[in-house]
Amino acid sequence: MGNETPAFILALLTAGGGVTGYVRTGSIPSIAAGLTVGALYGLGGLRIRQRQPYGTELALLASVVLAGSSIPRAIRSQKPLPVGLSALALFGLFTFGNAWRQQV
């Protein structure tokens, strides 16, 4: 399994979560953030699959953005959704951080 598979899975989960947040609560920030982070993961996955430059970096950027927004909320609120998003972000940071480190 290459690194494109986790990128595509994270893209679907984050974009789907943003859409779900919008449908359930009407939250524009949820859909904007979910689709943006999902697009970064998706674009990173495509670039990784096609062996183009900056695929891993895009997926790592998506993980940093997701972690930066979800981890502080998870610590503050300790609600399941921010904790779950934080877990996804940490998985992405680990996966794409290691891949980037091996490239350098």
Keywords:
104 residues; 4 helices
What does this structure look like?
The protein has 104 residues and is an all-alpha fold. 88% of the residues lie in helices and 0% in strands. It is built from four helices and no strands. The chain has helices spanning 4-25, 28-49, 55-77, 80-103. The radius of gyration is 13 Å and the shape is globular. The mean pLDDT is 94.
Helix and strand topology:
Blueprint: H1 4-25, H2 28-49, H3 55-77, H4 80-103
Bulk shape? globular
Sheet-strand content, in percent, reads under 5%
Largest sheet: none
Structural Rg: 13 Å
Unreliable stretches: none
- How many DSSP-defined strands? 0
Order of helices and strands: HHHH
Summarize the structure.
The protein has four helices and no strands. The model has no long low-confidence stretch (mean pLDDT 94).
